[in-house]
Design brief:
By secondary structure, the chain is of the alpha+beta class. It has two domains: 208 residues, PDZ domain (Pdz3 Domain, Roll); 152 residues, no CATH class. 41% of the residues lie in helices and 14% in strands. The strands form four sheets. The chain has a four-stranded antiparallel beta sheet with strand order 5-4-6-7. Strands 9-11-10 form a three-stranded mixed beta sheet, with helices on both faces. Strands 1-8 form a two-stranded antiparallel ribbon. α4 packs across α5, α4 crosses α9 and α13 packs antiparallel against α15.
């Protein structure tokens, strides 16, 4: 299960499948380094999206915050606890904003990029790097068992009565693994279920008691949405995942603006741009690096090997992204203002910034300027929001 915007993907660790061949060639040290990442790529791919509307364009809803330990708070947090608290805060916002985009747009996520999801996210104390395991236990109340941290509004999981704090016992009679590899093992266990079932039987533990329930699966885009632990203002997509850096999240101060950035990278994936540009492997390496607690920033020098996106492809992604944003209930009318501000404050000469790999701002704005009124007209006429 790693950690994205949908946990337990329909294939084991599906958000990383595109990088398996490269990973096999890496050294054992590289493999060990990967276990010290933030792990936001698979956790959300199958289990669910952390926020959103499962049917129709509704206004984004607030997700439950992570369940914190009820133990008395210590006078001062350790450095590791502060780090974990900050990571959880960023991830919480990322999941909350991403959810409506993923659940409102499965018909716009082409090919195998839409699938059934469980409708919740779950982690244990090993879901972060080993150095943060003790902090996850003391700060979040996590132990070896996978525990529900978020439930997707309007999902089958929510309707079944699943709640944050519930501990996963079994699904379809199969015990849910615990321990250091629980997420990956659970993903492998649950993956086959989503491809052939519309609902699953589950047992959870709540307040020491076993509670059986039936969970209807939720259809959604299956992109992993992950946090990049870096201050450069950028976003990346590798065909399967979307990464938003901490710097970009700070820049996109409103949820509507963050939704624009997320949808843009989702659109690149849906339109197969990483494959067409032959940048999927490079982007995957960048994402693998930036999800670590301490990424190698020397590898991020310049544009980190990425070529600028051609204006026609970039504008096509803008068009699809605007429709995704509108369908999810976010404000899309301010898109020109946001992208113009980003290009002005993060110009193309900042090589590790967004504009350096998306330089055709003027052309993009000319296309966006036509699409915004088009969407407004369709909404006014109660037409389907399809590009």
């Amino acid at each position: 299960m790693n950690t994205t915007i949908s946990s337990f993907d329909s294939s084991p660790d599906a958000s990383h499948q595109g990088t398996q061949k490269r990973t096999q060639k890496r050294t054992l040290q590289d493999a060990n380094d990967r276990t010290r990442c933030l792990r936001p790529a698979a956790l959300l791919s199958l289990l669910a999206l952390l926020a959103g509307c499962a049917s129709g364009p509704l206004l984004p809803t607030q997700m439950p915050r992570p369940v914190l330990s009820t133990a008395p708070e210590s006078p001062a947090l350790t450095a590791e606890q502060i780090l974990l608290r900050n990571l959880v805060a960023y991830q919480d916002r990322l999941y909350r904003v991403s959810g409506p985009l993923l659940t409102s747009n499965p018909d716009l996520c082409k090919g195998n990029n839409a699938r059934n999801l469980f409708g919740f996210t779950a982690k244990n104390k090993y879901s972060w790097s080993p150095e943060l395991a003790d902090s996850a236990q003391s700060l979040l109340g996590l132990d070896d068992r996978l525990q529900v941290l978020g439930v997707l509004p309007n999902s089958g999981a929510q309707r079944a009565g699943l709640k944050p704090g519930d501990k996963l016992v079994s699904v379809e009679g199969k015990p849910i693994p615990g321990g250091q590899n629980a997420e990956r093992q659970a993903a492998a266990l649950l993956a086959p279920m989503v491809s052939r079932k519309s609902s699953v039987s589950a047992v959870i533990q709540r307040n020491g008691a076993s509670v059986p329930m039936t969970i209807n699966l939720t259809r959604a885009c299956a992109y992993g949405v992950v946090l990049g632990n870096a201050d450069n203002i950028n976003a990346y997509s590798d065909g399967q995942r979307v990464l938003i850096t901490r710097g970009m999240m700070n820049f996109a101060q409103s949820d509507d603006d963050l939704a624009l950035v997320l949808a843009k990278e989702m659109a690149h994936n849906s339109l197969l741009h990483p494959g067409k540009q032959k940048t999927g492997a490079t982007s995957a390496d960048i994402i693998d690096n930036l999800v670590r607690v301490r990424p190698d920033m020397s590898a991020m020098a310049g544009a980190a090997g990425l070529r600028p996106m051609p204006q026609e492809l970039d504008a096509a992604a803008d068009v699809l992204a605007l429709y995704m944003v509108a369908r999810a209930g976010y404000r899309y009318e301010n898109a020109p203002r946001f992208w113009e501000k980003l290009a002005r404050q993060v110009p193309a000469n900042i090589l590790n910034g967004y504009t350096a790999i998306h330089p055709a701002t003027e052309y993009r704005l000319s296309v966006i300027g036509k699409i915004v009124p088009e969407i407004k007209a369709k909404q006014a006429g109660r037409q389907a929001l399809l590009p």
